[in-house]
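Reposting from the mailing list since nobody answered there.

I have sequence plus structure tokens for a pair of proteins and want to know whether others read the tokens the same way I do. The first protein:
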Amino acid sequence: MDIRIVVDNIGKSFGEKRLFSNVFAEIAGGQCLTVTGCNGSGKSTLLKIIAGLVRPTAGQVKLILDNRLCPKERIYYMGLVAPEVSMYLALTGIENIIFWTKMRGISCSKVEAENFCRQMGLGKSGCDLVATYSTGMRQRLKLAVIKAINPPIWLLDEPSSNLDEGGKELVKELIFAAVAQKAAVMLATNESEEVMYGKSTITL
């Protein structure tokens, strides 16, 4: 699948407050685009606009598949890791992975879900209720879910937040692996090392 995202003159305001304007970018499968800026500059909002969760005040986002505009909702092709994304606290880590993959029409067995938990450093905690997880463990579970879904477009909003050094290394490995598999990755971060992962950068 040849996939491209075109960000065409995007702007966003909330009432009289202008968050950003005149944002242009293009990202293709096999590339990583980073988004940086100070706190409150609109990094998270831009990712939500690209996902189709927030409407821009100006401009448009185009998803192009095999040189044709995609007729379906963009979110169908995307996976989002963000602070606002929550896992079900009353389910185990394994059950969350099985639930979210099923919602995407992806088959994932318990054994496969256990393996995704292990790969993200959760170990046997995949059998525990998410309500008992630390913030770092919940972040690792979000990463396990997007790895299980493996969408053609990855939207990562501060994916290293609440993670230790080992977790940050896992984020790096995930991004590089997704790019190698020809996924389009958009990464919102102010981590200097992570900014370098991008072939290009948007500074808000």
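The second protein, same order (residues first, tokens after):
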Amino acid sequence: MTTTALLHDFCARRGDLAARCRHCGAREFNICQALDPGLQEKLFALALRLQLGKREPVFAAGDPAHYVYNLTEGMVCLSRSLADGRRQILGFLLPGDFIGFEAGETHRCDAETLTEAKACRFERAVFDGFLQDNPETALRLLRMASSELAQAARHEVLLGRKTAVERIASFLLDLRDRSGERHLRTQPLALPMTRSEIADYTGLTIETVSRVLGRLRTDKVIELASTSAVRVIDEAALERMAGPA
């Protein structure tokens, strides 16, 4: 049995089914939004509630895509290892995001928690059946996928067209906006990812990330609230530094 499979079994043993969907803090943003209370209960009955620790793998590239996940608390990092040994961070997921819905039979990237997290895990075959019986959920999932495609397009522009300062400013603004949409605290803004992970997401070096953050701090655009949080002091200046949308 693989390490990831062992993790799934371990998570299953400590899954908590006590909290009903109506108490889920991410219900407003996830696939449950379109469901009436009866269908929410039906979907809940198909879920295993996972509690994951900080820096725990959810799945790895190449693992069979037997499960899909609805993140309800915490932050998850999606990444892919390149042939030359480097890593590309594909995104940072927030409560309400859906994880692991693959077109093929295996996962194409790695998913790892950055913080303690909670998620509802569904068996893929069972979840597919629920979508067939409940098209409103399928439509909600399609809208979420469209939003993810738009996010991926913005990331492509960030990597291909923006300067180092524009990339870091855009990264901070995007995380702030998405966090605010999910009713997460934005002042200060949590940055549980490492400088290395920010570098792998923005296509910069760690030194450049640190230098740009230092410049923003010196210019009083941001202040470092801690090693894992920043406070935006001058939002207008940060938006100007992010360049064209």
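Reply #1 (J.P.):
I read it the same way you do. Residues 195 and 210 are 7 Å apart (CA to CA).
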